[in-house]
C-alpha cells in the first residue's frame, strides 16, 4: 500500500479489498428485508420488470459514474466535483446532509445485537408468554393457528385493545423497545439498547479509524460472513415443509400491478437504495482505487452481485415464511411484513418454530449485524474522507483523522441516545421516512447526471474512463449519463411527491402536525443545500454574472478532457528511455533540463 502524507491519498492494498468493501456497502439490510417484500407486494415476478428497467437506466449508470469520478479525481464526495463541475459541489454537501441523517440506522444494529444476545436463551424469550413483560392477551407460538390474531394482523389491529397478541410482538414492543404511546411520550432510556448502541459505535470506529489499509482487512470478515449466513439460511429454508408455498407466493406474477404508479416508484427507490448511489460512499470507495483500476468491469459485477443477492435473499426469507404459514395452516400473506416488522417479528417467529431455533436465530441476526455494519462504517468513511480531502494539509497529519472520527462518532452517539428511549422507535421512523428518503437521493442523482452529462460532457467522461482502463464505455452508458438517467431521476423526483403518504406506524398511530413539519424540514434540508451553496458562490465570486456562472459550470483547470494521466505516462516513458541512453537516474535527467 502507498504510504500517505499531507499531499497524498492512500489506496487499497489489494483490489479484492475494494471489491469486498463495495460489496459490503451496496449489499445491506434493504436486500434482505425490503426487496423480498416489495417483490411480493408489487406483483411478484412482474415487479422484476420495473426493477430491471430502473437498474439498467438508473442504477448501473449512476454506480459507474460515481465510481469513475472517485477513481479519476482521487477526491472525496465534495472536492471531486471541482474537477468535473464546481457547481455540483452543492450536491456533495447535500450528500453529507443525507449521510448525517443516515447515521440513525445504527440503532437497527443495536436492536439486532440485543436480539442476538437473547438468542442464547432456552427457550427463546419471544417464543413463550411466561415472561414479566407479557400480558393476559399473549398467545405463544405453539398456540398460533388459523385464528384471526396472527403476526401482521396483530400489529395492525392493536388499537382495538381487545385482540390477542403474539408473544413475538409483545417481546418486540413491550420488552425490547418498551414502546410508549407516541413520539410526544419520550419516556426513559432503555439501558440495554444504550449499551448495544455504544458497542456498535465503538465497533464502527475501530473498523475505519486507521483508514482503508485497516478497513481493507476488516471487510474480509464483515463482507464475506453475511453470504455464508445467507447460504446457510437458504439451504435450511429450502428443506422446510411449506417452503415451496412461500417461494411461489414470492414470485407469483400479477401483471395488473404494472398499471400502478406506486409499483414503479417502489422499484426506482429500491434500486437507488440498494445500489447505494447518491450516497457518496461509491465515490469515496472509488477514490481509494489506483487510477488504472478497471472500474468499468468492477461496477458491472458489483451491480449484478447486488441484484442477485436481493433475489436470493427473497428465496431464503419466503421459504421460512412459507414454513411458518404451513405450520399454522394459514395463507402466506398473513405472515408477510417489511422492514423491522420482517426482521424482528415475522422471521424470529418463523425460526422459533424450527428445530434448534437458537442456532437459526443466531445465524439470522449475525447476518443482519454484518450487513448493517458495512453500510454504516462506509457512510462514516464518506463523511470523514470528505473532510480530510477538503483540508488535506491539516487533516493528513498524524492522529488528526482519528481524532476527528472519534468526535464524529461521539457526537452521533450522544444525539442518538434519544433513539434508545421508550419513544425512540417513533423518532427513528420519522427520520427514516423523511431524512434520507427516495426523493433526496433522486434529486442528488439528477444533479450528478447534469454535472457530468451537460456541464462536463458525457463524451469527456468517457475519455476519462478510456484514460484509466484503455477502453471507452459503450454508447448506451454515455446516453444514459446525458439523457436517460437524469430524465428518469427528475420524473421520479416529481412523482415521489404525487404518491406521498403521511407517515403512520404499524399500530395505526398518527404523528402530530409538528412531527410532519419536522420531517419535511429534514427532506428539504438536503434538497435546498445545493441552491444555497450556488447562491453563496455566485455572490462570493468576482466579475460579471455570466462569467461567474461559467466558472461554476465548467471544470477548473485541466480536467479529464486533456488526458493528464496519458501525458504523465508519456513523460515517464521518455524519462526512462533517456535514463537508458545516458545512464542517468530520473533526478539527474531533470537537473540537466531534459
From TrEMBL:
Na(+) binds at residues 24, 27, 31, 274, 306, 371, 374. InterPro entries: Na/ntran_symport, SNS_sf. It comes from the Eukaryota. GO terms for cellular component: cell projection; plasma membrane. The keyword Transmembrane applies. GO terms for molecular function: gamma-aminobutyric acid:sodium:chloride symporter activity; metal ion binding. It is found in: Membrane. The chain crosses the membrane at residues 47-65, 100-118, 220-244, 264-288, 300-325, 359-383, 403-421, 441-459, 480-500, 520-540. Its main location: membrane. Keywords: Disulfide bond, Membrane, Metal-binding, Sodium, Symport, Transmembrane, Transmembrane helix, Transport. The keyword Glycoprotein does not apply. It is a multi-pass membrane protein. Disulfide bonds join 129-138. Belongs to the sodium:neurotransmitter symporter (SNF) (TC 2.A.22) family. This is Transporter.
